[in-house]
């Protein structure tokens, strides 16, 4: 492990309260899979839910890799460096099993799969001065400048920075002129508020993509053709009725619930969902959870066997879009 992996010392274990306007977090909870070779685009197009072939060089997209039953083995942010090289950032414990499963198919293509985590440092940057902070450290905006690092926009004031490991300390020190270092929890809270869920090791092969609202985030293509699990995913979109999907909730509890923690209806005592991810805000715990649609509005939802306080439903940024689409069915 080279020197730049000691960067965690530059970031607090707990974020300050109140949260800073512009913040910087070290995304060391994920690992990066490098898929390269002359067949890289064709190979990934037949394996992933997102439309790899339509992605511009230097662009990024959310996506998932499903098993033949349409259940997600991993979800990730995919970054295209060239037609022959892609990077996929996913929950750290999932990289090894995902790489092993993809390797079964890679033998039929001119493509290589490698864990390149040590080559990159990924940072989350958000807030009103995020764009200025990124510009000040001269990060590239396209793959031709990848050696200098890349800035990937998630929303108007939220971005991921992909930084070559040998430049990481220099770039972090420069960014802190405009952004305050915070704990990873703060970044996870930001993603929760954007409605971006993630497959974790505890929820591997638990969800189909629509259960994590991945189609709302551009992570599922229904036009690109076949990929592993595509038949199940497409059937649910066009012929089925999705009975469970991801919601955002708030909770005034004390302990942070782990992914896959059951969500219980206090009246019936039955499990009606499970936690996807959770993080602390200044006031409470916020979480994303996959719930039965008919149970989402209940006032008696609780985390596992903790009956009080009850969970409260919160909004997602794409809630109106989902409601409009549902009304149009």
Automatic annotation (TrEMBL):
- InterPro entries membership: GcvT/YgfZ_C, GCVT_N, YgfZ/GCV_T_CS, YgfZ/GcvT
Organism the protein comes from: Halopseudomonas bauzanensis
By its UniProt entry, which Gene3D superfamilies does this protein fall under? 2.40.30.160, 3.30.70.1630, Aminomethyltransferase beta-barrel domains
What's a GO biological-process term for it?
iron-sulfur cluster assembly
PANTHER family, alphabetized: TRANSFERASE CAF17, MITOCHONDRIAL-RELATED
UniProt domain GCVT N-terminal: residue ranges: 29-138
The protein here is known as GCVT N-terminal domain-containing protein
